[in-house]
Amino acid sequence: MKAFIVDKYSKGRALRLGEMPDPIPADQDVLVKIHAAGLNPLDVKIRDGAFKLLLPYRPPFILGHDMAGIVTRIGANVRGFKVGDAVYARPRDGRIGTLAEAIAVDEADLALQPKTLTMAEAAAMPLVGLTAWQALVEQANLQKGQKVLIHAGAGGVGTFAIQLAKYLGATVATTTSTANVDFVTALGADIVIDYRKQDFATVLSGYDVVLHSLDADTLEKSLSVLRPGGKLISISGPPDPDFARRQGLNGLLRQVMRLLSFKIRRKAKRLGIDYSFLFMRADGGQLQQITALIEAGIIRPVIDQVFPFEKTNEALASLAAGRSKGKVVVTLR
Fold first, then answer.
1. Which residue, among 208, 186, 192, 26, has the nearest Cα to 109 in the 3D structure?
2. Of 35, 41, 142, 199, which residue is 20 to 30 A from 190 by alpha carbon distance?
3. Total-model pTM
4. What's one Pfam family here (predicted)?
């Protein structure tokens, strides 16, 4: 099958379009013919080698973390899906590879595609949806009447998280550039901080939750807007000891994670704030709950650009430039 392949970790290196063996599904797997694949900053970071200690994929391997497609075969133990089903997923770590014509996905990671979406729209949703869900619902337990700051509201995670937080009944603040103020307001943001004109740390205070996805300086400044007992959840690091333990990392890497996050954890503790690093995991059950919200019209996909499959490298370059509103998607069919 045709696939986009990482032959060597290297910053900015183009993926190779080549042939890879067809996937063979195990008993618990579903074989999916991919129609569309969503791109994420995680793809860029993995290609560049930024996560090779945490996710030690051995080149050559197929990149890609989001997909939508049609089931063509099921394993002997699969009960929840049948041939012909339209499905979408963020396959689990260690089994990525959605920039290809087909993929075998564990049944537990898969969900039926929302009936209201096209394949391209569905492929844009799994990773950002699960990230926002695990941050705001699972980790923050965001409640009606609480206040949440969502950084980078025009990005892939941000556009989903704003809509989800509004559904949960929270007051939502977000940061964005001047050009995107009206865009994030239309998504439901109550307070919009134009970072080119305002410093969010001097405008906001008493917040219950911050969802961080930017740099270290923004992470530290985010502490100042939280109330004692508030939660600072970062999806861009630094990783903390709890993450290292959940990932089953060895003792040396656990110590590295401890040192990397020591400064922010110490400052958060002094202020009575809970700091945690979130590296989202595949979860078909949560994706089914997200499907219900999409089909009810509560959350809609936000797509910046759609590229044909053969232009995947151009699509990655567009994403890496950091100016996308929502998601970048490639389509195979």
1. 26
2. 41
3. 0.97
4. ADH_zinc_N_2
